[in-house]
């Protein structure tokens, strides 16, 4: 059995880590490089850095941050935000990132998933899917969750997998920042239908929520932000709890 992964997420705005609720009401959560070092030392399995305003502001994710993070930690990390071309990916991987995450660019031009997977390998390509339930149907949103699309989440997840994505980062906008638990039903539906790993994101509030998303949600990894940034749940304690609950997890 593959071990489940615990992944802190650092949302970056203007070079600082921020956190909000339902993608808004942002507050400062610290220096991203310092936080990265702490999480690496505490036993996080991977990290994700998302420049949450990169696409909106038409900016590119800064390779400088990637270089600093790569020097500070020894665990894999993914970078997303404003990435739209093979050249963007080349710069970030060259700066030290292990994977890149695309969202808006993939929706705008799905063929870019194929291009990136062919150029760098599927293992480097994570497609982030921000989803919100509207009248009982889950729809994909882009531009940091600001723009709804007509794409149904489950169908889009299947398409990105077929195009060569190595992993899906699934964020429930309805659950994001609420600490009410992950979107287990949707996560399980997508995870069960695909052969690639699914990272569940949005809603972590306590340790049982992680157990639930790994069991009921069938997620391969669980991502969270504020509960780690504001030291509500220490990663070593979370891992000990999950091991005690019979979840296969890296110590």
From TrEMBL:
InterPro entries: Aldolase_TIM, His_biosynth, HisF, IGPS_HisA/HisF, RibuloseP-bd_barrel. Pathway: Amino-acid biosynthesis; L-histidine biosynthesis; L-histidine from 5-phospho-alpha-D-ribose 1-diphosphate: step 5/9. One of its GO terms (cellular component) is cytoplasm. It is found in: Cytoplasm. The active site is at 11, 130. GO terms for molecular function: imidazoleglycerol-phosphate synthase activity; lyase activity. It holds the Pfam family His_biosynth. CDD domains: HisF (cd04731). Keywords: Amino-acid biosynthesis, Cytoplasm, Histidine biosynthesis, Lyase. Its EC number is 4.3.2.10. It comes from the Bacteria. GO terms for biological process: L-histidine biosynthetic process. HAMAP family: HisF (MF_01013). IGPS catalyzes the conversion of PRFAR and glutamine to IGP, AICAR and glutamate. The HisF subunit catalyzes the cyclization activity that produces IGP and AICAR from PRFAR using the ammonia provided by the HisH subunit. Belongs to the HisA/HisF family. This is Imidazole glycerol phosphate synthase subunit HisF. The gene is hisF.
